[in-house]
Amino acid sequence: MFAATLRSSSKAMGFTRNSFPQRAFSSTSTRMSVVASFVQQGKKIVAIGRNYSEHAKELNNAVPKEPIIFLKPTTSYVASGGNVEIPRGILAHYEVELGVVIGKRGRDIPLSDAESYVAGYALAVDMTARNLQEELKAKRLPWTVAKGFDTFTPISSYISKDSVADAANLSLTLRVNGAVKQDGNTKDMIFSIPKLIEHISTIMTLEEGDLILTGTPSGVGPVVPGDKVECTLKDSTGKQLATLDFAAVQREGGYEY
């Protein structure tokens, strides 16, 4: 049975949540310190499913009429350059996504005010145990296990809001062993970032350091132990805002499918 707690050996896991580099901030920037350290201090990862119509179609799913929400544990974070551990029997799929870092606590946030709750961004991959997810969906059961394995949320360093001119026009690219597999743009989202914030906050309170994964474009597919994955995030001018890379490895012990 899958153990939700992190292993004590950083060699075995390839990371701990607290292994991310700490940044120095002045005493007047406590809030910025919290949001920039969202991996260590954030309480939840709120993920959105099927937010790009072509991705919904490639998995034979209907295009949603309202955002589909699921949660991932913060213990699933792994820093860029780390390893994604694939449990035995699991068909693991990559899903590159723009992450939105929340800067302040809010509930029932109006659409007109939603942008003010964004502190910054991150480049992320929502790793998914696809064969397990399909089984769970067929049984009408939650996706938690398929999404929640340790190391199943590779994450870049924090991107300040000021460095992103237009979050609704960013290119997301993912390569496996050098070959482009996903090449999408946030302008193709079904639900905008402000709409996601508005909707999520009617269900659960958003807090400083929370991360919203905004969905993935089409092109999702498998990675197997030995594969190398590289991701980039660029703005409309071609300026690179973030990179993210990781290796897929076989998990030893723990959960087996």
From TrEMBL:
GO molecular function list: acetylpyruvate hydrolase activity; metal ion binding
Gene3D superfamilies (UniProt xref): Fumarylacetoacetase-like, C-terminal domain (3.90.850.10)
One GO cellular component, as annotated: mitochondrion
Domain Fumarylacetoacetase-like C-terminal: 44-234
Domain of life: Eukaryota
Family membership: Belongs to the FAH family.
UniProt name for this protein: Fumarylacetoacetase-like C-terminal domain-containing protein
Organism for this UniProt entry: Dichomitus squalens
